[in-house]
Specification:
The chain has 638 residues and is α+β, with helices and mostly antiparallel strands. The protein folds into three domains: 195 residues, no CATH class; 131 residues, Ubiquitin-like (UB roll) (Roll); 255 residues, no CATH class. 29% of the residues lie in helices and 29% in strands. The protein contains 16 helices and 37 strands. The strands form 14 sheets. Strands 22-30-29-23 form a four-stranded antiparallel β-sheet. Strand 25 and strand 26 form a beta hairpin. The N and C termini lie far apart (197 Å).
Length: 638
């Protein structure tokens, strides 16, 4: 506080201590920094001022393909480019292969200008990238200008279409390998390379030239053209080998006695083969193949030889040693699978294989060669029956012998039905049968196999007395005296109704082995004794049979004989066509016992038609009655 009475005191300020004046360098540096700051501020202000002035417009100095776009907005720039850009329709691109040239407008090679993308590129100058990039672009626009490359599209499909037209003029086509069979001769010529336009490389050159947006010249790239099938030597050599020796076809794991093998010689094989072209990227080749239709036709024919049912081993029973003696080996059953075989053959022939295997379904036999009597339960002769055929012709005897042989050594399994038809060979001349009298369609005629019913009748009687169930049996239409013969050849009417006729496959004879043991059948043909014996070997199971035979009942008289003239018969010839037989009804009752108790009983009823004697005579016979009387045929019935 200053009072009014206090004297005023003045104090001199003290001089600052330790503060020096700036040097000359420091003053210069300070001035420089201040200047740079001022410049930067001005530059930034200028940058933003320019950006502000040209907002929504292209910066000055920007051009596309010589067209100045500075100061224009997007629509203006696009319109300016559209007005000024005539390169696509007025420009020229020369395409040459070195010897010949073709001129194209760029648009004809697929060129088009993308206005939107090009104006976007122009608009982005000075506005894209980091700050330094944008400032640099701006300075360039102001000083020297900036040329923005146009954004163009090249439709390579259009260009490729033009190149394909040129290629059609200049290309040298490749020559495909040629391979064919001429008879059994293999004709082969390897492929030859050609030349033509390298599409990918040439399209790249054209695209690059179009993107310059200037007239120019493109030299096409040419390259080799390889054939799709350049060589087929492997297939040709395979074919040569096959044409030298043909192919062999066999069953898989074939044994002695099996069907085959089959040879297809070259002259038969050649028409069955084809060369098939197969794709094998990047090219193709040829492979051998069978013609499907030809191969199937061959297999269908061969199936007749391949297909067969399985065959059990056949034996005879040696009673002295109580053992089986093999008489016929067993064999597998085969069924050809044509579809699988076709596939297997195609695969094999494509590899040039000359050994081909059939695809078959294999059914093994039930009885192998190694089976023993003990395994089958065969210990002794359990049943035997002998029938007689005195007065039979040589042809009838031949048929009896041939048919009976089919059953010698056959084994019948327990609890199974035996069918004669299964084991009978085809009744034909080729299988050893002869023509003899048979009953067919109500008449006695001469046909192949007459006498086979002697065999079926003998089996019927054997199974009858053995006590087995008879599941199918058919009688003859009329009484046949062969089946009523006693051992001394005399007629035994009690044997009427004890016959069985067969006519395969329509009429069969069957019986069931309802015992727990196998049956071994043996047939013994005795030509001198005019007899056929059928033996069953098995193990007795306590069966016995009692039978009652009625003999002929309700006998119907023989109808009058029938005599006919055959103008095609030999002159002076007379032939007996049918034998007279009385009609009758017969019943046979059978009772089967097992260990003394009745097992079952059955009846066999037969009705025979009365049968007229029939005779036939040829030309040149003047007195038919006298000629018939002399032979004792077709005489009036009393």
């Amino acid at each position: 506080m200053i009072s009014g009475n206090s004297p005023v005191q003045f104090v001199r300020p003290k001089k600052p201590v330790g503060v020096a004046r700036p040097s000359g360098f420091e003053s210069w540096l300070l001035a420089l920094l201040l200047g740079l700051a001022v410049f930067a501020t001005v530059a930034i202000l200028a940058f933003f001022a320019i950006q502000l002035v040209y907002i929504g417009r292209i910066l000055p100095g920007v051009q596309v393909a010589g067209v100045q776009l500075g100061g224009m907005n997007r629509p203006q720039a696009a319109q300016a480019l559209a007005n000024a850009s005539t390169f696509a329709t007025l420009g020229q691109v020369k395409v040459t292969d070195g010897a010949k040239s073709w001129l194209f407008k760029p648009a004809d090679l697929g060129l088009s200008l993308d206005m939107e993308q090009t104006t976007s590129q122009a608009m982005s100058v000075g506005r894209a990238g980091g700050p330094l990039v944008m400032v640099n672009d701006l300075l360039n626009t102001l000083q020297v200008g900036v040329a923005v490359p146009p954004v163009v599209w090249v439709n390579q499909g259009v260009a490729a279409s033009q190149l394909r037209k040129i290629d059609a003029e200049v290309a040298l086509p490749a020559t495909e390998a040629a391979l064919r069979l001429n008879g059994t001769q293999v004709e082969y010529a390897p492929g030859q390379a050609g030349s033509g336009i390298d599409m990918d490389a040439s399209l790249a050159l054209i695209t690059a030239q179009l993107q310059t947006f200037r007239d120019g010249e493109v030299t096409l790239r040419l390259g080799p053209r390889q054939p799709m099938v350049a060589q087929a030597e492997d297939a040709a050599e395979q074919a040569r080998q096959l044409m030298a020796g043909g192919v062999t076809v066999a069953l898989p794991n074939a044994k002695q006695g099996d069907p085959g093998p089959w040879m297809i010689p070259p002259d038969q094989l050649a028409p069955m083969l084809r060369f098939v072209r197969t794709e094998n990227k990047p090219g193709a080749t040829y492979k051998l193949a069978f013609d499907q239709d030809s191969l199937r036709a061959w297999l269908e024919r061969t199936a007749n030889e391949v297909d067969r049912i399985e065959g059990d081993a056949r034996f005879i029973f040696d009673q002295a040693s109580q053992s089986l003696v093999l008489t016929q080996p067993s064999h597998n059953g085969y069924q050809l699978n044509i579809s699988e075989t076709v596939s297997a053959f195609q695969q094999a022939i494509a590899g040039g294989q000359a050994q081909l295997q059939l695809a078959v379904k294999v059914t093994p036999p039930q009885v192998s060669d190694e089976m023993t009597a003990a395994q089958l339960g065969i210990t002794q002769l359990t049943q035997s029956y002998t029938s007689h055929f005195y007065g039979s012709s040589a042809d009838r005897r031949q048929n009896i012998r041939t048919a009976a042989a089919n059953f010698n050594g056959v084994l019948v399994p327990p609890d199974s039905v035996f069918s004669m038809g299964k084991y009978m060979s085809d009744v034909s001349l080729e299988n050893g049968y002869a023509e003899a009298l048979i009953i067919y369609n109500g008449k006695t005629i001469k046909g192949v196999g007459g006498g086979v019913c002697q065999v079926s009748t003998t089996l019927f009687r054997t199974a009858f007395y053995a006590g087995y169930q008879i599941t199918e049996r058919h009688a003859h239409a009329y009484r046949v005296l062969y089946y009523e013969q006693s051992p001394n050849g005399a007629n035994d009417p009690l044997l009427s109704g004890f016959d069985a006729t067969v006519y395969f496959p329509l009429v069969d004879f069957k019986f069931k082995n309802d015992s727990p043991y196998w049956i071994l059948m043996e047939t013994v043909y005795d030509d001198a004794g005019s007899s056929l014996t059928w033996n069953f070997y098995s193990t007795p199971d306590g069966r016995s049979v009692e039978a009652v035979f009625s003999g002929p009942l309700d006998i119907k008289p023989v109808p009058p004989p029938v005599v006919t003239f055959n103008p095609e018969a030999e002159p002076y010839s007379i032939t007996r066509l049918d034998y007279p037989a009385e009609g009758a009804r017969v019943v046979i009752n059978r009772t089967v016992f097992k260990n003394g108790a009745v097992l079952f009983s059955d009846d066999f009823a037969t009705v025979y038609q009365p049968w007229a004697e029939a005779c036939e005579y040829g030309p040149e016979i003047e007195d038919v009655e006298k000629a018939l009387q002399k032979k004792g045929w077709c005489q009036p019935v009393e």
